């Protein structure tokens, strides 16, 4: 039982605390002991929150889950809601406060994974005091693993997929149907190119990626270890589309990562022959982006990722036999109009009825 007086600044709470009394050598019987707790707090809202934490009012605390007061409210002694809930043995309330989601419904584990804080990730997942849920979903179904992929934190991804934690990349999707193969394609430029990307400071002293920086090495090369690791995970399918019809190639092109585009073509065997729901091929997205990086990607796509062009070259005998990954040799990729014309004339002479 909890009794609260009407004084906003000084709240007296009487609560029942279970104790045990031995009745036999093997049996204990719980009895209730009334304990008075004098809580001093500043505002009516603080009073309500503290009482809810002590009483176990799950509905009230859950209704303000997004409010920062869930973490900032303290009594005059500096004790938070978490202190009072834990001290009152209100385990469900403790869980609500610990799993407090501040931004976009993201938990501490989301932020630790996003920022590559491996030790924090390990502690949150493995510590008996945290009980973080590894595959917990935030707003729009975003998981900690997806954020780790997006920010190119290979070690965090490797840890999350261990048997101890149990994340399975092939079934980890958000509400838009985007999985790891899509997230890696839209990795921020500075996370895709550790050693070459420069940042610029604007008038508000905020750093941002300089899209006018045309360093030819800003091609996403630092994403290669992650995508190579990802390709070895059980059940990973680079050809699936998300709900807007985007493939991994669409995402990599929009992200401006030439290294990933080439990997998808030369190692995975992808062609730019799939349209999204708006009718766009990946090359169309490169045109829309209209930067130096994207222009180069658009040229590459039209020369080397066209299935029609590849099939035509194959008929002309200009491609090596397709391997299991449908790769093309460097000499084939470098073919120009003159070589193609010569091969066409040779083939025409061989097949022409008047030869």
From TrEMBL:
<dbReference type="Pfam" id="PF12796">
    <property type="entry name" value="Ank_2"/>
</dbReference>
<keyword id="KW-0040">ANK repeat</keyword>
<dbReference type="InterPro" id="IPR002110">
    <property type="entry name" value="Ankyrin_rpt"/>
</dbReference>
<dbReference type="InterPro" id="IPR036770">
    <property type="entry name" value="Ankyrin_rpt-contain_sf"/>
</dbReference>
<keyword id="KW-0677">Repeat</keyword>
<feature type="repeat" description="ANK">
    <location>
        <begin position="244"/>
        <end position="264"/>
    </location>
</feature>
<protein>
    <submittedName>
        <fullName>Ankyrin</fullName>
    </submittedName>
</protein>
<feature type="region of interest" description="Disordered">
    <location>
        <begin position="197"/>
        <end position="218"/>
    </location>
</feature>
<dbReference type="InterPro" id="IPR001623">
    <property type="entry name" value="DnaJ_domain"/>
</dbReference>
<feature type="repeat" description="ANK">
    <location>
        <begin position="104"/>
        <end position="124"/>
    </location>
</feature>
<dbReference type="Pfam" id="PF13637">
    <property type="entry name" value="Ank_4"/>
</dbReference>
<dbReference type="InterPro" id="IPR036869">
    <property type="entry name" value="J_dom_sf"/>
</dbReference>
């Amino acid at each position: 039982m909890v009794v609260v007086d009407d004084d906003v600044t000084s709240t007296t709470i009487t609560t029942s605390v279970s104790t045990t009394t031995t009745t036999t050598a093997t049996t204990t019987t719980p009895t209730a002991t009334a304990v008075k707790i004098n809580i001093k707090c500043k505002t009516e809202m603080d009073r309500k929150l503290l009482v809810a934490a002590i009483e176990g009012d799950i509905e009230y605390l859950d209704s303000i889950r997004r409010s920062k007061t869930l973490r900032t409210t303290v009594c005059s002694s500096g004790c938070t809601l978490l202190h009072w809930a834990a001290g009152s043995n209100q385990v469900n309330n403790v869980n609500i406060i610990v799993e407090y989601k501040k931004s976009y419904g993201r938990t501490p584990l989301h932020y630790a994974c996003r920022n590559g804080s491996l030790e924090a990730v390990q502690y949150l997942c493995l510590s008996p005091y945290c009980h973080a849920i590894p595959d917990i979903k935030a707003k729009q179904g975003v998981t900690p693993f997806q954020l780790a992929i997006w920010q190119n934190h290979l070690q965090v991804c490797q840890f999350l997929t261990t048997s101890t934690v149990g994340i399975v990349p092939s079934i980890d999707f958000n509400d838009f149907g985007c999985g790891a193969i899509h997230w890696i394609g839209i990795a921020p430029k500075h996370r895709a190119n550790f050693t070459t990307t420069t940042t610029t400071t604007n008038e508000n002293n905020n750093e941002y990626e300089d899209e006018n920086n045309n360093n030819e090495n800003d091609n996403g090369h630092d994403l290669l270890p992650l995508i190579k690791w990802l390709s070895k995970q059980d059940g990973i399918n680079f050809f699936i589309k998300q709900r807007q019809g985007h493939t991994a190639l669409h995402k990599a092109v929009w992200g401006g990562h030439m290294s990933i585009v080439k990997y998808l073509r030369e190692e995975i065997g992808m062609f730019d022959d799939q349209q999204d729901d708006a009718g766009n091929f990946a090359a169309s997205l490169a045109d829309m982006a209209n930067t130096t990086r994207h222009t180069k990607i658009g040229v590459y796509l039209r020369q080397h990722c066209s299935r029609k062009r590849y099939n035509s070259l194959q008929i002309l005998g200009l491609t090596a036999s397709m391997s299991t990954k449908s790769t093309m040799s460097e000499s084939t990729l470098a073919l120009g109009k003159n070589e193609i014309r010569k091969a066409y004339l040779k083939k025409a002479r061989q097949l022409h009825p008047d030869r």
